[in-house]
Amino acid sequence: QVQLVESGGGSVQAGGSLRLSCTASGYTYNRYCMGWFRQAPGKEREAVATIQPASSGTYYGDSVKGRFTISRDNAKNMLYLQMNSLKPEDTATYYCAARVGGCYSITSADFKLWGQGTQVTVSS
Predict the structure, then answer these.
(1) Distance (Å) of CA 58 to CA 11, 15, 29, 74, 117
(2) Are strands 118-123 and 10-13 parallel, antiparallel or unpaired?
(3) Strand 32-39 relative to strand 92-100: parallel, antiparallel, unpaired?
(4) What H or E segment, with its residue span, contains residue 46?
(5) I want to staple 39 with a disulfide (CB 3.0 to 4.6 A). Which of 23, 45, 50, 56 is the partner?
(6) What local confidence, expressed as pLDDT, does residue 55 receive?
(7) Digit-coded pLDDT (tens) for 57-105
(8) For the chain, how big is the Rg over CA atoms in Å?
(9) Confidence check: pLDDT of 37 > 90
């Protein structure tokens, strides 16, 4: 059974940090591009960061560059998102997602596997 399960969300004050984790199972993890997306109420889902199957390259959205770091551990089928210097505008539900092959797209429709999401709330 293919499954992506996020954890690590929560509430934090502005300037604080959180680390999100995603546990993948049921597919050949190291052959998939992995990504973090987020969706705030009333807004479209947006790509936060993506990472190539062999960690050979990453992408970051402009709003998180320099503050967030995506990483993966293929031996453990894990994906991470270290979020530092959090801002109230980072408040959203964060989703782990996967697409087979390389990270040639940041469009959510191109990612076929999704977790259930984890809530991140940043207060000012």
Answers:
(1) 26, 24, 16, 15, 21
(2) parallel
(3) antiparallel
(4) strand 46-51
(5) 45
(6) 87
(7) 999 999 999 999 999 999 999 999 999 999 999 999 999 999 999 999 9
(8) 13
(9) yes
